[in-house]
Design a protein that fits this description.
rod-shaped; 61% helix; 178 residues; mainly alpha; membrane; single chain
Length: 178
C-alpha cells in the first residue's frame, strides 16, 4: 500500500537532474512584432488622412451639353401646358402652377442649382452668380406668375393674365437664358 509520503516523493523532482538553460532568444520575435505594429500604424494613419478629407462634390453638367438644355424641349413642355388648359384637361390655376414649376425646373437644369421648391422670397435671396440677367428674369417670371396663381375671387384684376400670356413669360425666360 502506498502512503502519502511515497506519492509525494515520486512527484518530487530530483535536484541532481536540474540544469540551467540559457534564456530563450526572443529578440527576433520582438523585432518582428515591432515591425508589424509600425506597418499597422502607418496604414491606420494613411486611412485616417484619406478618409477624413472632404469629398469633392460632383459638379453637374451645365451649358449646352447638359441634360435638359435643349430649348425646343422646354418650349414644347410649355406648349403642352397651354394645350392641356385649352382642352380643359387642367384648370387655369393648375396651368399657372405647372408653368411656375417649369420655369424653376428649367433654371435648375441650366444653373445646376436645386430651385424646384424655391419660393419667390427664396429666389430673391438666392446668390446671383454667373449671368445676373438670368436670375433677374427668373425672379420676374415667378413674380408675374404668382398673382394669377394665388389670386382669389376678390381680386379679379389678378386674373387678367391669361394662361397663354403666362406661358409666353416662361417661354421668354427660356429663350433669353444665357
Amino acid at each position: 500500500m502506498n502512503t502519502d509520503a511515497d506519492t509525494l516523493s515520486s512527484l518530487a523532482v530530483q535536484s541532481d537532474d536540474l540544469h540551467v538553460q540559457p534564456a530563450p532568444d526572443v529578440s527576433t520575435m520582438l523585432w518582428a512584432c515591432c515591425g508589424a505594429a509600425a506597418v499597422i500604424a502607418v496604414v491606420c494613419i494613411v486611412c485616417a488622412v484619406v478618409l477624413s478629407r472632404p469629398r469633392k462634390a460632383r459638379t453637374p453638367t451645365q451649358g449646352a451639353h447638359a441634360e435638359g438644355s435643349d430649348k425646343r424641349t422646354w418650349l414644347a413642355r410649355i406648349d403642352a401646358v397651354v394645350h392641356d388648359h385649352d382642352t380643359h384637361r387642367i384648370t387655369a390655376d393648375e396651368a399657372y402652377s405647372e408653368l411656375a414649376a417649369l420655369a424653376r425646373a428649367f433654371a435648375s437644369a441650366r444653373s445646376g442649382r436645386p430651385l424646384a421648391t424655391r419660393t419667390l422670397r427664396d429666389l430673391e435671396h438666392e446668390p446671383r452668380t454667373g449671368n445676373t440677367d438670368n436670375w433677374d428674369a427668373l425672379r420676374m417670371t415667378i413674380a408675374a406668375l404668382y398673382p394669377p396663381e394665388f389670386a382669389d375671387d376678390d381680386h379679379p384684376q389678378a386674373h387678367s393674365a391669361s394662361v397663354a400670356q403666362a406661358a409666353g413669360w416662361v417661354a421668354d425666360l427660356v429663350e433669353r437664358w444665357r
